[in-house]
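Submission sheet (multi-component)
Chains listed below:
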Amino acid sequence: MNVRTLCLSILHEGDATGYEIRRLCVDGECSYFIEASFGSIYPALARLESEGLVSSRTEQQDGKPTKKVYSITPAGRDAFVQELSEPLGEETFRSPFLLFARFAHLLPRDLVEARANEFLRERSERNKIVTAAKATSMNACDAWVINYGRAMMGVAEEYLRAHMHELIALARAEPNKDAAE
Amino acid sequence: MNVRTLCLSILHEGDATGYEIRRLCVDGECSYFIEASFGSIYPALARLESEGLVSSRTEQQDGKPTKKVYSITPAGRDAFVQELSEPLGEETFRSPFLLFARFAHLLPRDLVEARANEFLRERSERNKIVTAAKATSMNACDAWVINYGRAMMGVAEEYLRAHMHELIALARAEPNKDAAE
DNA sequence: ACTTGCATGTAAGTGGTTACATGATTGG
DNA sequence: CCAATCATGTAACCACTTACATGCAAGT
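Outcome: structure written.
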Protein backbone atom coordinates (compact mmCIF):
# COMPACT_ATOMS: atom_id res chain seq x y z
CA MET A 1 0.00 0.00 0.00
CA ASN A 2 2.13 2.83 -1.33
CA VAL A 3 1.69 6.59 -1.51
CA ARG A 4 0.38 6.25 -5.05
CA THR A 5 -2.61 4.20 -3.88
CA LEU A 6 -3.04 6.50 -0.90
CA CYS A 7 -3.40 9.50 -3.22
CA LEU A 8 -5.88 7.62 -5.35
CA SER A 9 -7.91 6.76 -2.25
CA ILE A 10 -8.14 10.39 -1.16
CA LEU A 11 -8.97 11.65 -4.65
CA HIS A 12 -11.63 8.97 -4.87
CA GLU A 13 -13.48 10.78 -2.08
CA GLY A 14 -13.00 14.20 -3.70
CA ASP A 15 -10.65 16.65 -5.40
CA ALA A 16 -7.55 17.76 -3.56
CA THR A 17 -4.15 19.37 -3.93
CA GLY A 18 -0.89 17.72 -2.90
CA TYR A 19 -0.77 20.02 0.07
CA GLU A 20 -4.26 19.02 1.19
CA ILE A 21 -3.48 15.32 0.78
CA ARG A 22 -0.53 15.73 3.07
CA ARG A 23 -2.64 17.56 5.65
CA LEU A 24 -5.13 14.71 5.62
CA CYS A 25 -2.27 12.30 6.29
CA VAL A 26 -1.17 14.35 9.27
CA ASP A 27 -4.40 15.71 10.77
CA GLY A 28 -7.13 13.67 9.13
CA GLU A 29 -9.37 11.11 10.78
CA CYS A 30 -7.39 8.33 9.17
CA SER A 31 -4.01 9.78 10.02
CA TYR A 32 -3.55 7.05 12.60
CA PHE A 33 -2.93 4.41 9.96
CA ILE A 34 -1.59 6.28 6.94
CA GLU A 35 1.54 8.28 6.31
CA ALA A 36 3.11 10.32 3.54
CA SER A 37 5.38 13.33 3.14
CA PHE A 38 5.57 16.00 0.44
CA GLY A 39 8.57 14.34 -1.09
CA SER A 40 6.53 11.25 -1.88
CA ILE A 41 3.14 12.83 -2.59
CA TYR A 42 4.16 15.29 -5.31
CA PRO A 43 6.07 12.77 -7.43
CA ALA A 44 3.26 10.24 -6.96
CA LEU A 45 0.69 12.75 -8.19
CA ALA A 46 2.84 13.68 -11.19
CA ARG A 47 3.25 10.04 -12.12
CA LEU A 48 -0.47 9.38 -11.66
CA GLU A 49 -1.24 12.25 -14.03
CA SER A 50 1.19 10.99 -16.67
CA GLU A 51 -0.60 7.64 -16.48
CA GLY A 52 -3.97 9.33 -16.99
CA LEU A 53 -5.33 8.17 -13.64
CA VAL A 54 -5.78 11.71 -12.37
CA SER A 55 -6.19 15.11 -14.05
CA SER A 56 -5.27 18.53 -12.72
CA ARG A 57 -6.28 22.16 -13.00
CA THR A 58 -4.54 25.21 -11.56
CA GLU A 59 -6.54 27.59 -9.40
CA GLN A 60 -5.49 31.14 -8.64
CA GLN A 61 -6.17 32.46 -5.17
CA ASP A 62 -5.69 35.96 -3.87
CA GLY A 63 -3.19 36.35 -1.08
CA LYS A 64 -2.21 32.71 -1.43
CA PRO A 65 -0.05 30.81 -3.88
CA THR A 66 -1.63 29.27 -6.96
CA LYS A 67 -2.68 25.70 -6.30
CA LYS A 68 -2.96 22.62 -8.44
CA VAL A 69 -6.14 20.70 -7.83
CA TYR A 70 -6.21 17.04 -8.79
CA SER A 71 -9.26 15.00 -9.77
CA ILE A 72 -9.47 11.26 -10.21
CA THR A 73 -10.41 10.07 -13.71
CA PRO A 74 -12.66 7.10 -14.51
CA ALA A 75 -9.50 5.17 -15.39
CA GLY A 76 -8.16 6.16 -11.98
CA ARG A 77 -11.24 4.77 -10.24
CA ASP A 78 -10.86 1.50 -12.10
CA ALA A 79 -7.18 1.29 -11.27
CA PHE A 80 -7.93 1.99 -7.62
CA VAL A 81 -10.53 -0.76 -7.35
CA GLN A 82 -8.12 -3.05 -9.16
CA GLU A 83 -5.38 -2.20 -6.68
CA LEU A 84 -7.67 -2.91 -3.73
CA SER A 85 -8.53 -6.29 -5.23
CA GLU A 86 -4.91 -7.38 -5.20
CA PRO A 87 -3.34 -8.99 -2.12
CA LEU A 88 -2.99 -6.49 0.70
CA GLY A 89 0.43 -5.48 1.98
CA GLU A 90 1.37 -6.32 5.55
CA GLU A 91 0.23 -4.34 8.54
CA THR A 92 3.11 -2.29 9.87
CA PHE A 93 3.35 -1.26 13.48
CA ARG A 94 6.69 -0.03 14.74
CA SER A 95 6.93 1.52 18.15
CA PRO A 96 10.15 3.18 19.30
CA PHE A 97 8.40 4.01 22.54
CA LEU A 98 7.62 0.39 23.40
CA LEU A 99 11.20 -0.62 22.62
CA PHE A 100 12.31 2.20 24.91
CA ALA A 101 9.84 1.10 27.59
CA ARG A 102 11.29 -2.41 27.68
CA PHE A 103 14.52 -0.90 28.97
CA ALA A 104 13.08 1.65 31.34
CA HIS A 105 14.93 -0.08 34.20
CA LEU A 106 18.24 1.04 32.63
CA LEU A 107 17.24 4.65 32.21
CA PRO A 108 16.94 7.67 34.50
CA ARG A 109 13.46 8.30 35.89
CA ASP A 110 13.33 11.83 34.50
CA LEU A 111 13.83 10.57 30.99
CA VAL A 112 11.28 7.79 31.28
CA GLU A 113 8.75 10.20 32.73
CA ALA A 114 9.35 12.72 29.95
CA ARG A 115 9.01 10.11 27.22
CA ALA A 116 5.91 8.58 28.78
CA ASN A 117 4.24 11.98 28.99
CA GLU A 118 5.24 12.74 25.42
CA PHE A 119 3.78 9.43 24.29
CA LEU A 120 0.56 10.01 26.20
CA ARG A 121 0.21 13.46 24.68
CA GLU A 122 0.66 12.11 21.16
CA ARG A 123 -1.75 9.23 21.75
CA SER A 124 -4.45 11.41 23.27
CA GLU A 125 -4.10 13.89 20.42
CA ARG A 126 -4.69 11.11 17.89
CA ASN A 127 -7.53 9.88 20.05
CA LYS A 128 -9.10 13.34 20.03
CA ILE A 129 -8.95 13.48 16.22
CA VAL A 130 -10.67 10.15 15.79
CA THR A 131 -13.19 10.80 18.55
CA ALA A 132 -14.07 14.23 17.17
CA ALA A 133 -14.88 12.86 13.71
CA LYS A 134 -18.62 13.19 13.29
CA ALA A 135 -20.79 10.56 11.70
CA THR A 136 -22.44 13.12 9.41
CA SER A 137 -20.71 13.48 6.06
CA MET A 138 -19.19 10.04 6.41
CA ASN A 139 -20.16 6.83 4.70
CA ALA A 140 -20.77 3.62 6.65
CA CYS A 141 -17.41 2.09 5.73
CA ASP A 142 -15.53 5.15 6.90
CA ALA A 143 -17.54 5.06 10.11
CA TRP A 144 -16.57 1.42 10.61
CA VAL A 145 -12.88 2.28 10.24
CA ILE A 146 -13.20 5.32 12.51
CA ASN A 147 -14.88 3.19 15.15
CA TYR A 148 -12.07 0.67 14.95
CA GLY A 149 -9.69 3.56 15.48
CA ARG A 150 -11.73 4.85 18.41
CA ALA A 151 -11.60 1.43 20.07
CA MET A 152 -7.84 1.14 19.59
CA MET A 153 -6.91 4.71 20.50
CA GLY A 154 -9.25 4.50 23.44
CA VAL A 155 -7.55 1.55 25.13
CA ALA A 156 -4.12 2.91 24.29
CA GLU A 157 -4.84 6.13 26.15
CA GLU A 158 -6.66 4.31 28.94
CA TYR A 159 -3.82 1.85 29.49
CA LEU A 160 -1.28 4.64 29.53
CA ARG A 161 -3.18 6.79 32.00
CA ALA A 162 -3.73 3.83 34.29
CA HIS A 163 -0.25 2.28 34.09
CA MET A 164 2.34 4.79 33.03
CA HIS A 165 3.22 5.60 36.63
CA GLU A 166 4.16 1.94 37.11
CA LEU A 167 6.63 2.17 34.26
CA ILE A 168 8.09 5.37 35.64
CA ALA A 169 8.48 3.70 39.04
CA LEU A 170 10.54 0.95 37.37
CA ALA A 171 13.05 3.45 36.01
CA ARG A 172 16.33 4.12 37.78
CA ALA A 173 16.14 6.58 40.64
CA GLU A 174 18.26 9.67 40.06
CA PRO A 175 21.63 9.22 41.79
CA ASN A 176 21.91 12.80 43.14
CA LYS A 177 18.37 13.34 44.35
CA ASP A 178 18.87 12.86 48.10
CA ALA A 179 22.45 14.13 47.83
CA ALA A 180 20.95 17.55 47.09
CA GLU A 181 18.80 17.29 50.20
CA MET B 1 14.73 3.21 15.78
CA ASN B 2 16.58 1.18 13.17
CA VAL B 3 17.52 -2.49 12.85
CA ARG B 4 20.91 -1.74 14.37
CA THR B 5 19.32 -0.62 17.65
CA LEU B 6 16.87 -3.51 17.46
CA CYS B 7 19.75 -6.00 17.32
CA LEU B 8 21.44 -4.28 20.24
CA SER B 9 18.21 -4.51 22.25
CA ILE B 10 17.89 -8.24 21.69
CA LEU B 11 21.55 -8.92 22.41
CA HIS B 12 21.21 -6.86 25.58
CA GLU B 13 18.84 -9.54 26.88
CA GLY B 14 21.12 -12.40 25.81
CA ASP B 15 23.33 -13.90 23.09
CA ALA B 16 21.74 -14.70 19.75
CA THR B 17 22.45 -15.46 16.11
CA GLY B 18 21.14 -13.41 13.20
CA TYR B 19 18.70 -16.17 12.48
CA GLU B 20 17.38 -16.16 16.04
CA ILE B 21 17.02 -12.39 16.03
CA ARG B 22 14.88 -12.61 12.96
CA ARG B 23 12.73 -15.34 14.53
CA LEU B 24 12.16 -13.12 17.55
CA CYS B 25 11.03 -10.35 15.21
CA VAL B 26 8.54 -12.69 13.58
CA ASP B 27 7.34 -14.96 16.39
CA GLY B 28 8.52 -13.24 19.56
CA GLU B 29 6.36 -11.58 22.17
CA CYS B 30 7.39 -8.18 20.87
CA SER B 31 6.86 -9.04 17.23
CA TYR B 32 3.77 -6.85 17.20
CA PHE B 33 5.82 -3.67 17.27
CA ILE B 34 9.17 -4.56 15.72
CA GLU B 35 10.22 -5.69 12.27
CA ALA B 36 13.36 -6.77 10.46
CA SER B 37 14.36 -9.09 7.65
CA PHE B 38 17.57 -11.09 7.06
CA GLY B 39 18.74 -8.57 4.52
CA SER B 40 18.88 -5.88 7.16
CA ILE B 41 19.86 -7.95 10.22
CA TYR B 42 23.04 -9.55 8.87
CA PRO B 43 24.60 -6.31 7.61
CA ALA B 44 23.60 -4.56 10.84
CA LEU B 45 25.31 -7.26 12.91
CA ALA B 46 28.45 -7.11 10.77
CA ARG B 47 28.61 -3.36 11.14
CA LEU B 48 28.01 -3.57 14.88
CA GLU B 49 30.90 -6.01 15.18
CA SER B 50 33.23 -3.77 13.18
CA GLU B 51 32.36 -0.99 15.60
CA GLY B 52 33.19 -3.19 18.59
CA LEU B 53 29.65 -3.03 19.98
CA VAL B 54 29.13 -6.78 19.65
CA SER B 55 31.47 -9.77 19.46
CA SER B 56 30.87 -13.13 17.80
CA ARG B 57 31.89 -16.77 18.08
CA THR B 58 31.11 -19.61 15.69
CA GLU B 59 29.47 -22.73 17.06
CA GLN B 60 29.44 -26.08 15.29
CA GLN B 61 26.28 -28.15 15.53
CA ASP B 62 25.72 -31.69 14.28
CA GLY B 63 23.07 -32.06 11.64
CA LYS B 64 22.71 -28.30 11.43
CA PRO B 65 24.74 -25.55 9.80
CA THR B 66 27.44 -23.81 11.81
CA LYS B 67 26.07 -20.74 13.51
CA LYS B 68 27.55 -17.42 14.50
CA VAL B 69 26.55 -16.38 17.99
CA TYR B 70 26.72 -12.69 18.82
CA SER B 71 27.25 -11.15 22.28
CA ILE B 72 26.91 -7.54 23.26
CA THR B 73 30.10 -5.89 24.58
CA PRO B 74 30.27 -3.34 27.43
CA ALA B 75 30.75 -0.67 24.75
CA GLY B 76 27.63 -2.03 23.08
CA ARG B 77 25.62 -1.68 26.29
CA ASP B 78 26.77 1.90 26.67
CA ALA B 79 25.95 2.70 23.06
CA PHE B 80 22.51 1.15 23.47
CA VAL B 81 21.66 3.18 26.57
CA GLN B 82 22.98 6.24 24.75
CA GLU B 83 20.74 5.49 21.79
CA LEU B 84 17.68 5.12 24.02
CA SER B 85 18.45 8.47 25.62
CA GLU B 86 18.22 10.26 22.31
CA PRO B 87 14.88 11.51 20.93
CA LEU B 88 12.65 8.60 19.95
CA GLY B 89 11.64 8.07 16.34
CA GLU B 90 7.99 8.37 15.40
CA GLU B 91 5.44 5.66 15.98
CA THR B 92 4.58 4.01 12.69
CA PHE B 93 1.25 2.38 12.05
CA ARG B 94 0.29 1.63 8.51
CA SER B 95 -2.73 -0.51 7.79
CA PRO B 96 -3.49 -1.65 4.25
CA PHE B 97 -6.50 -3.47 5.63
CA LEU B 98 -8.10 -0.34 7.08
CA LEU B 99 -7.51 1.53 3.81
CA PHE B 100 -9.16 -1.41 2.06
CA ALA B 101 -12.03 -1.40 4.55
CA ARG B 102 -12.84 2.25 3.84
CA PHE B 103 -13.76 1.21 0.31
CA ALA B 104 -15.57 -2.02 1.11
CA HIS B 105 -18.72 -0.56 -0.51
CA LEU B 106 -16.92 -0.63 -3.88
CA LEU B 107 -15.76 -4.20 -3.61
CA PRO B 108 -17.39 -7.63 -4.03
CA ARG B 109 -18.65 -9.23 -0.83
CA ASP B 110 -16.55 -12.37 -1.33
CA LEU B 111 -13.37 -10.35 -1.40
CA VAL B 112 -14.26 -8.26 1.64
CA GLU B 113 -15.19 -11.38 3.56
CA ALA B 114 -11.94 -13.12 2.60
CA ARG B 115 -9.81 -10.12 3.59
CA ALA B 116 -11.67 -9.62 6.85
CA ASN B 117 -11.18 -13.28 7.79
CA GLU B 118 -7.53 -13.06 6.85
CA PHE B 119 -7.11 -9.97 8.99
CA LEU B 120 -8.89 -11.59 11.93
CA ARG B 121 -6.68 -14.66 11.64
CA GLU B 122 -3.51 -12.55 11.65
CA ARG B 123 -4.71 -10.42 14.57
CA SER B 124 -5.73 -13.38 16.69
CA GLU B 125 -2.42 -15.10 15.97
CA ARG B 126 -0.55 -12.05 17.26
CA ASN B 127 -2.94 -11.91 20.18
CA LYS B 128 -2.20 -15.55 21.00
CA ILE B 129 1.56 -14.87 21.02
CA VAL B 130 1.27 -11.95 23.39
CA THR B 131 -1.31 -13.66 25.59
CA ALA B 132 0.75 -16.85 25.81
CA ALA B 133 3.84 -15.00 27.07
CA LYS B 134 4.30 -16.03 30.68
CA ALA B 135 5.29 -13.61 33.42
CA THR B 136 8.07 -15.96 34.58
CA SER B 137 11.41 -15.27 32.95
CA MET B 138 10.38 -11.73 32.18
CA ASN B 139 11.36 -8.50 33.87
CA ALA B 140 8.79 -5.95 35.02
CA CYS B 141 9.39 -3.60 32.09
CA ASP B 142 8.90 -6.37 29.56
CA ALA B 143 5.73 -7.36 31.41
CA TRP B 144 4.48 -3.77 31.15
CA VAL B 145 5.04 -3.75 27.40
CA ILE B 146 3.46 -7.19 26.99
CA ASN B 147 0.41 -6.04 28.94
CA TYR B 148 0.10 -2.99 26.71
CA GLY B 149 0.21 -5.39 23.76
CA ARG B 150 -2.43 -7.62 25.36
CA ALA B 151 -4.74 -4.66 25.84
CA MET B 152 -4.32 -3.52 22.24
CA MET B 153 -4.44 -6.93 20.57
CA GLY B 154 -7.39 -7.79 22.76
CA VAL B 155 -9.62 -4.97 21.60
CA ALA B 156 -8.51 -5.40 17.99
CA GLU B 157 -9.67 -9.00 17.97
CA GLU B 158 -12.78 -8.20 19.98
CA TYR B 159 -13.82 -5.36 17.68
CA LEU B 160 -13.26 -7.50 14.63
CA ARG B 161 -15.24 -10.46 15.93
CA ALA B 162 -18.10 -8.19 16.96
CA HIS B 163 -18.22 -5.95 13.88
CA MET B 164 -16.63 -7.60 10.86
CA HIS B 165 -19.98 -8.91 9.67
CA GLU B 166 -21.22 -5.33 9.49
CA LEU B 167 -18.36 -4.45 7.17
CA ILE B 168 -19.05 -7.49 5.02
CA ALA B 169 -22.70 -6.49 4.82
CA LEU B 170 -21.64 -3.09 3.44
CA ALA B 171 -19.77 -4.70 0.54
CA ARG B 172 -21.32 -5.03 -2.89
CA ALA B 173 -23.60 -8.00 -3.34
CA GLU B 174 -22.39 -10.41 -6.02
CA PRO B 175 -24.17 -9.62 -9.30
CA ASN B 176 -24.70 -13.25 -10.41
CA LYS B 177 -25.82 -14.76 -7.14
CA ASP B 178 -29.58 -14.99 -7.75
CA ALA B 179 -29.00 -15.39 -11.48
CA ALA B 180 -27.63 -18.85 -10.71
CA GLU B 181 -30.72 -19.65 -8.65
C1' DA C 1 11.62 41.02 12.84
C1' DC C 2 10.37 36.39 12.96
C1' DT C 3 7.60 32.58 12.52
C1' DT C 4 3.76 30.09 10.67
C1' DG C 5 0.76 28.80 6.94
C1' DC C 6 0.02 28.38 2.20
C1' DA C 7 1.87 26.11 -1.95
C1' DT C 8 4.90 23.29 -5.33
C1' DG C 9 8.55 20.92 -6.52
C1' DT C 10 13.57 18.55 -6.90
C1' DA C 11 17.80 16.03 -5.53
C1' DA C 12 20.46 13.46 -2.68
C1' DG C 13 20.63 10.06 0.57
C1' DT C 14 19.19 6.02 3.28
C1' DG C 15 17.15 2.30 5.27
C1' DG C 16 15.21 -1.01 4.10
C1' DT C 17 13.10 -5.27 1.11
C1' DT C 18 13.43 -9.01 -2.37
C1' DA C 19 15.71 -12.16 -4.68
C1' DC C 20 19.58 -14.83 -5.20
C1' DA C 21 23.31 -18.18 -3.82
C1' DT C 22 24.44 -22.31 -1.00
C1' DG C 23 23.73 -26.53 1.50
C1' DA C 24 22.64 -30.11 4.99
C1' DT C 25 18.78 -32.47 7.50
C1' DT C 26 14.23 -33.88 8.78
C1' DG C 27 9.45 -34.87 8.16
C1' DG C 28 5.29 -35.55 5.44
C1' DC D 1 10.46 -36.44 -3.62
C1' DC D 2 9.35 -32.08 -2.03
C1' DA D 3 8.89 -28.73 1.43
C1' DA D 4 10.36 -26.79 5.45
C1' DT D 5 13.77 -25.61 9.00
C1' DC D 6 18.25 -24.31 10.06
C1' DA D 7 21.83 -21.01 8.78
C1' DT D 8 24.65 -17.03 6.56
C1' DG D 9 25.37 -13.79 3.51
C1' DT D 10 25.34 -10.46 -0.92
C1' DA D 11 23.53 -7.43 -4.55
C1' DA D 12 20.18 -4.99 -6.85
C1' DC D 13 16.55 -2.32 -6.33
C1' DC D 14 13.00 0.86 -4.43
C1' DA D 15 10.09 3.68 -1.78
C1' DC D 16 10.34 7.06 0.99
C1' DT D 17 12.53 10.79 3.92
C1' DT D 18 15.20 15.01 4.49
C1' DA D 19 16.89 18.91 3.02
C1' DC D 20 16.93 22.31 -0.27
C1' DA D 21 14.89 26.00 -3.35
C1' DT D 22 11.33 29.66 -3.73
C1' DG D 23 8.02 33.14 -2.31
C1' DC D 24 4.15 35.77 -0.53
C1' DA D 25 0.85 37.04 3.34
C1' DA D 26 -0.73 37.26 7.95
C1' DG D 27 -0.17 37.08 12.55
C1' DT D 28 2.87 37.69 17.01
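Remark: The longest helix of chain B spans residues 140-170.
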